[in-house]
Write a structure and sequence with these properties.
single chain; 359 residues; alpha/beta; 10 helices
Amino acid sequence: MTYSVAVSGASGYAGGEILRLLAAHPDVEIRTVTAHSNAGQPLVAHQPHLRSLAHLTLQDTTPEILAGHDIVFLALPHGQSGQYTDALGDTPLVIDAGADHRLTSSTEWDAFYGGAFHEPWTYGVPELLVGGGKQREALRGATRIAAPGCNASTVSLSLAPGVAAGVIDPGDIVSVLAVGPSGAGKSLKTNLLASEILGSANPYAVGGTHRHIPEIRQALAAARSSTGSGPSTGSGTQDIRISFTPVLVPMSRGILATSTAPIVDGVSDAEIRQAWESAYGDETFVQLLPEGSFPRTADVLGANTALVGLAIDRAANRVTVVTAVDNLVKGTAGAAVQSMNIALGLPETRALSVNGVAP
């Protein structure tokens, strides 16, 4: 069966990456691409690297144009997806790459985003530990999927094994991330100009204000849950505390997340490493590196891969986890396509690669 696909926000970074991956997918046909201010223009005027899709023209983003497809991807700014998802009730599968359907708590949504709160959808991080299993099981047959925030899924995948195994204390997490500006989208912003970021590193959303914080806390609460209900529960986050500081660095793509948390008393080094080995030993796209090895963002460029390095710092009594992802692939579009594959019963790895691009 070939599934018809529409992609909204197709002139942006996330939409373009979704299209790049789907263009190589044998089970889908990209029929419709939409935008707002760029509607009426050829897709390749905004995504010149997508040569196989040169025949497509950007249409207006309206419920009527998006309707009538088997699958709709929404790659819109936060707070804009809900107005369309409410009108796509007859669409068999809708995947939102924005934040509108990620959070289960309306209070957290009001505090970090504001605006209309929309119902939470199945969270699109298949490898995330949920109770005694993986989020992958919740994605099988799903019809509404919330793709993750790139920073949030990176930190969650970094720490979930330790939280689930009870070997680290989630009450004192510190995460510092080096991130590329493509995560902020394609809209013109002065602080993202090359002249502003080249040769510089700039922290932003400092002091607990970043919008991905409640998403991380929600995911980690699910990881330690004994109910197996997954991120859709949204409970038990009160004692999960995280100091989260992203730093903008001059690389177009990539996240390098360094996260630390205290070691629980009485836990051995072997038990700590076993938690991560058990969680990811059989995974294709999340790979734990050998002891003493740590990832580079260059190694995951263009890949749907999260590479994880683990260190045990007994002097500080903390575990340090360093994780590298391509924010546009594993952080966003790759997670969306991987989740789509699972929901449709297709091979999970279809149209996705573990191999990066070098140099």
